[in-house]
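INPUT
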Amino acid sequence: MPRVNTNFNDRTVEYEQLLNNFKQLLKKNNLKFTIQREVILETLYNSDEHLTPEGLHHLIQEKVPDLKTGIATVYRTLSLLEESNVVTSLSFGAQGKKYELGAKEHHDHLICTICGQITEFVDNEIERRQHAITDELGFTMSDHSMQIYGICKECQTN
Amino acid sequence: MPRVNTNFNDRTVEYEQLLNNFKQLLKKNNLKFTIQREVILETLYNSDEHLTPEGLHHLIQEKVPDLKTGIATVYRTLSLLEESNVVTSLSFGAQGKKYELGAKEHHDHLICTICGQITEFVDNEIERRQHAITDELGFTMSDHSMQIYGICKECQTN
DNA sequence: GTCGCTGCAAAGTCTTTGCAGAGAG
DNA sequence: CTCTCTGCAAAGACTTTGCAGCGAC
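OUTPUT
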């Protein structure tokens, strides 16, 4: 099994927790903990980027070439993880969903339309306003997402 | 040509403007003003809902059955309208894009995960914060979108 | 008349599904 | 052992494209 950190630092602890939660979740639903599922979770964890199913599949093939993981398994596992709220999917303008671990603090996205880079941010004032708006309309908010599109600092100077 | 209003009220005026803008846009780009393009624009205008390409196609077939509009034309026209910023596409969780006229004031969306209803809203405080955030990061904002998911008032009582 | 547009059907993407064998518990 | 997972390939959903005839200008 690939594991990025073998020394016991914070990052490893965080991953161990995530992994344990995932194992419990599987057990609770009579599902099995397989190598493929672990590799997928770990790859998502170790990637700073927002991955498409295909991108994730490629990454896994590079990192663990012996395990011939099928794209179908990637899709199936992502659906499972999304249902379980372990990951969140984002569907931006163009096409195809991207996935990210959802365990992190809630955040929104800045998307550069030139280089495609995604930057995350959190703004408490916006979060507050969202609650105010839904309260006013009698709407029970379960989730929300916000994307700002434009040109990032780097792409402006190039 | 179908035309919902023949009397000269505000709504008709608004549509006439939209139509004229569209015609100018076509002329400027050496494109042709066709019946199909008018019907598509008009159907979008007269629909309060956010339409999928397929939904739009169905609506048109119902309303103008003699004109055998092909789904390909709907897709092609929507792309054209989107490029020209006449319509905006929204791609929410599930799949498939939905389109709405983009000429209206900028607004965000509340999406009921039970009945699928989409409610629009505008919040100036949020708009202000978005500008503040992008300014701070040196990001040039071109557009943004926000969706809040949850359960609408009606679905809560049912 | 010219040149763009349209409908049709075929081809592409991206995603899901059926199935038989592999593997977790 | 049982019953879920997996990889593969086939099938689906949605969208785009090639083409020959049609129609706007």
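end of record. Residues 13-103 of chain B form a domain with the Arc Repressor Mutant, subunit A fold (CATH 1.10.10.10).
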